[in-house]
Every structure is written in structure tokens, then in C-alpha cells.
TrEMBL record:
Belongs to the universal ribosomal protein uL18 family. It comes from Marixanthomonas ophiurae. GO terms for molecular function: 5S rRNA binding; structural constituent of ribosome. Keywords: Ribonucleoprotein, Ribosomal protein, RNA-binding, rRNA-binding. This is one of the proteins that bind and probably mediate the attachment of the 5S RNA into the large ribosomal subunit, where it forms part of the central protuberance. HAMAP family: Ribosomal_uL18_B. The gene is rplR. GO terms for biological process: translation. The keyword rRNA-binding applies. Pfam families: Ribosomal_L18p (PF00861). Part of the 50S ribosomal subunit; part of the 5S rRNA/L5/L18/L25 subcomplex. Contacts the 5S and 23S rRNAs. This is Large ribosomal subunit protein uL18. Coiled coil: none annotated. GO terms for cellular component: cytosolic large ribosomal subunit.
Length: 118
């Protein structure tokens, strides 16, 4: 029997997490995408700490009234700005089992435009 969509994503996510890990100097940029919103956080896996986070539910992004792909780009820029304040320049990108396409790609491009390297 074929896997459900969520089971398939979980398998891919675990396969990615075997190789991608974050440190204090190079945290993991973890993405979560729901049907309406998109979330990003910088995670230090060694200490088990979230350094900073941004989402499309933040007041300035939510008030901009743009479509979901443009909101994802704004989230990428916001996480990059917060990372710069925290002293982070390079990250390990964790797409969370989602295809590098659409909103995930927009978020990554926004983060790169904001100054993050990955």
C-alpha cells in the first residue's frame, strides 16, 4: 500500500535530519509549512535551543496582505535580519521534507537576499 502524503514527508524529513544538524556557529534553518502559514527557525541542535524564529503570522508580515509565496519571501528576509542581530551568517538549510519549490524556495531566496549564506 502506498504511503500517505504525511508519511512520505516524515520519511524524507528523517532522512534529511540524519545529515543536517545545527551548531551555535552554523545553526539549522528549519522550515515548517502549513496550508495557510509558513514558519522558520534557527536551531542549535547541540544545545537543543532555538536561536530565533519568524513566521507569516508576525504582525508586520501579516499586515502586508500579500499572497503566500510573497509572504514566505518576507519571512526569509525577517529570519535573515534576526540572524544577523544574533551574529549568525551561515546556516544549514533544512527544508523539512518539503520539495524545494514554491513557498519553500521563496523563503530560501528571501533569506539569501537578507544576507544568510547556505
Amino acid at each position: 500500500m502506498a504511503l500517505s502524503k504525511t508519511d512520505r514527508r516524515e520519511r524524507i524529513r528523517f532522512r534529511i535530519r540524519k545529515t543536517v544538524s545545527g551548531t551555535a556557529e552554523r545553526p539549522r534553518l528549519a522550515i515548517f509549512r502549513s496550508n495557510k502559514e509558513i514558519y522558520a527557525q534557527l536551531v542549535d541542535d547541540v544545545n537543543g535551543v532555538t536561536i530565533t524564529a519568524a513566521s507569516s503570522r508576525d504582525k508586520d508580515i501579516d499586515a502586508s496582505k500579500v499572497n503566500k509565496s510573497e509572504a514566505a519571501k518576507l519571512v526569509g528576509k525577517a529570519i535573515a535580519e534576526k540572524a544577523q542581530k544574533a551574529g549568525v551568517e551561515t546556516v544549514a538549510f533544512d527544508r523539512g521534507g518539503y520539495l524545494y519549490h514554491g513557498r519553500v524556495k521563496s523563503l530560501a531566496e528571501g533569506a539569501r537576499e537578507g544576507g544568510l549564506k547556505f
